[in-house]
Protein 1
Amino acid sequence: MVFTGFAAEAFAFYRELEAHNERAWWLEHKPRYDAHVRAPFEALAEELEPVASTVKVYRPYRDVRFSHDKTPYKTRQGLFAQRAPGIGWFLNLDATGVSLGGGFFGDASFTKAYRAAVEAVGPGTELEGILRALEGAGYEIGGEQLKTAPRGTDPAHPRIALLRYKWVTARRHVDEADALGPELLDALFDTVDELQPMVAWAAANIAPKR
């Protein structure tokens, strides 16, 4: 299967889903999802197989068991190209466009390994430099973080801003108009290349300790 870009219909589908997030509407319009969202995502997954150990296209259904929000369907579609468990690149599509990025995330043991690496001078300063370069290239640095210093961490630590994170991502947004053609594949692989230092840092400093 060859990726030829997303159609405008993919973004229109999510604009409408946001207003009609219910089973009856979904069943009526699921052929649109299959043709304009699911199929191109599966094509993208095939394209990414050479750079990842596994590529996962996420299911469109929300887990509402423990949520106050009972809307049944996700208002975005995503995939994750994994280099190591919890480490790799992602692409998300919603009503506003496409998000391209990468990074690392995981459970409490993952966060513990990440913070141990950041506390160490060598890998910690290396990650600082990587993230600074990505910000300079236009990426937004994000991830779940604490409002204060983690328990047992010196609030005056020189990398306290990074230590407050549980996991870290870098992403950039592509508007709908720039995501409609096959050129998006080039943008995706540019992102893979540009985020390679961040992904490699995580694979070297976090994955072996899990």
Note: The two ends are 35 Å apart (CA to CA).
Protein 2
Amino acid sequence: MNEVRGSAGLPDTLVFRLGTLGSVIGDRFAQRIERHDLKPKHVGLLTALGQGSFASQQELAGRLGVAPSLVVSLADHLESLGALRRVRDPRDRRRQALTLTDRGLELLAACTAEARTLDAELTAHLGEPERQALHAALGSLAAQEGLPTD
């Protein structure tokens, strides 16, 4: 019982800190990309497409760990922005693939710039060695979970 009241409680755990920071920072990022008419899940799809330009909606759903219907919904919005186009796979006409357009690449670059600016603001009080150590540690954790690190 004392542990809960003392300094070694839940706020002292890595899980709590990363979760809380992730939520706060995710909200800040969402506010910044809103002017592009995007939400973080749209950026996730743009990022996945940026890593491999010709992927079916089904494959993308598996890669992102979401329902195929969500990919369809996200792709509909991105298509309305001119950020991607749907193309029938010439090898399998039943398969519809998504590719980024030049506008999609521009949006992805703009979101990357927003994220880098937020990174700089978030870590402004850290010294360069601390920033590098934090980046390396989070990269290691992400890799362990099978998340993109580049």
Note: The domain at 24-144 is CATH 1.10.10.10 (Arc Repressor Mutant, subunit A).
Protein 3
Amino acid sequence: MKQLQFPHQTNFYRGKVRDVYTIADNWLVMIASDRISAFDVILPRPIPYKGQVLNQIAAYMLKATSDICPNWLVDTPAPNVAIGRKCDPFRVEMVVRGNLTGHAWRTYHSGKRELCGVALPEGMKENDYFPSPIITPSTKAEVGHDEDISRSEIISRGLVNEADYSQLEKYTLALFQRGKEIAAKQGLILVDTKYEFGKIGDTVYLMDEIHTPDSSRYFYAEGFEERQQKGERQQQLSKEFVREWLIANNFMGKEGQTVPEMSDEWVKTISGRYIELYEKVIGQPFKPQALSDEETYQRALLSLSNLS
């Protein structure tokens, strides 16, 4: 999507997936593109309807958790557009894990028994449940790779003060529990996810997207225990299958590595997996909507005019 220009626009930021417009230093227009990233690298081909999937799942989940924590969202005037309050962001991501999967498993499998200052129990297998969910935060990088960081480092480096961090921990665990309950009703397990928070004045707000396939990992609940006992791979809905494909093709975002070619068939497969997750999580059929840049702009403009 081309870069737009809104009245009273004071900033523009193009992230890995989203284009974010700041309006009058008070509001954000966030447009979820069809870009896809992995290992902090934007892959060369867009994924059809990915932006709509992310935006609509996030809006659904923000509404479903608004009683736990205030959030930034005010309106979703177009399939891939969200408008909300501009917050002063904390420079950390609150990653919460219910199972030993992904990055946590790779760390564990390498022989380490600590992640972000959190001790990992002995004798666990890949995808096993932790005794209770763990929080493994990361720094929020403007460019390049996010980095693991511990609670004590966050506080000692002044990234978040202790009182605010305690609040973030409480919100994170409560949001994760709600996310797991929503997932369970649809026959899914919310395995891990991440949350971003910010402040307006003294109030902490939940920001960005939540419980989407870009920020979360889901397993199918049916047959989970049986697959664990047999040591079989879990059936999952997440972006992890894209990472696994990249790893299998010798790409992990490291210097000198080249992103493998993405065929039309592979792009279609990724799009289908995103739509599958939408329908599974939301429990409703996905309705593709393809708006032009001008239609998207006009809808966002009308919504902004109603805020002022």
Note: The longest strand covers residues 188-200.
